[in-house]
Amino acid sequence: VNFGSHTNAVVGLAVEVVNALTPGESGGRPYPAPTAAELPGHLARLLPEEGPLTAADTAGLVEIAGSLRAVFELVDVGDVDDAAVLVNTLVHHWQARPALSRHDGEPWHLHFHGPEASPAEGTGAGCATALAFVLGSEYADRVGVCSADGCDRVYVDTSRNGTKRYCSTACQNRVKAAAFRARRAAAPTR
Ligand SMILES: [Zn+2]
Fold first, then answer.
1. Cα within 13 Å of Cα(150), Cβ side
2. 155 CA distance to ligand 1 centroid (A)?
3. Residue range 144-149: average pLDDT?
4. Residue among 166, 146, 144, 163 nearest 73 (CA)
């Protein structure tokens, strides 16, 4: 599934922002919210082309992560209606607007924010609009929350058949191994 290479990339960024910045569980372990000391490292990895971020941008990105997580969770439980309303709110709040851009040797491509947007505004506008494309397509159910026990990281499924249920192969393998152990434990001993 391809929503356009730039849209695909920005939906992928939304997944990474949620998974890095929102607390919960990851791969069977608690995932605490990043501390103030940890945030700059996460943000440098998520937005490598930005320099060190201001406190306002850092706070904005944590806020964005929380609201994007709500979109994934609503879709995951089948509530696309409320997810769509929330995405519209985010598109408006982060002042998304289309603007063709050409930089760093790339061909013209559509950005979802104006050139003067701050890193938080640009990320909020971009991620909200990319999710709007997904929810407005026949692939609205391709975003979700990991089904493994002890994990609530989010994912986007761009595979052809759309059967992804886990955030990672690590979670998929953990679930398979647990099912194997359960079958073996239930099997009669000879
Ligand atoms: Zn997982």
1. 10
2. 9
3. 96
4. 144
**What is the secondary structure of 124-162 as a DSSP string?**
HHHHHHHHHHHHTSTTGGGEEE--STT---EEE--SSS-
CA of 66 from ligand 1 middle (Å) equals 18
CA distance 176 to 99: 45
CA of 2 to the centre of ligand 1 (A): 23
Residue with tokens 């996460």: 42
- How confident is residue 190, by pLDDT bands cut at 50, 70 and 90? low
Buried b (16+ CB within 10 A) or exposed e, 156-182: bbeeeeeebebbbeebbebbeeeeeee
**Ligand 1 center to 127 CA (angstroms):** 21
Helix (H) or strand (E) holding 109: strand 109-111
Whole-structure pTM value: 0.91
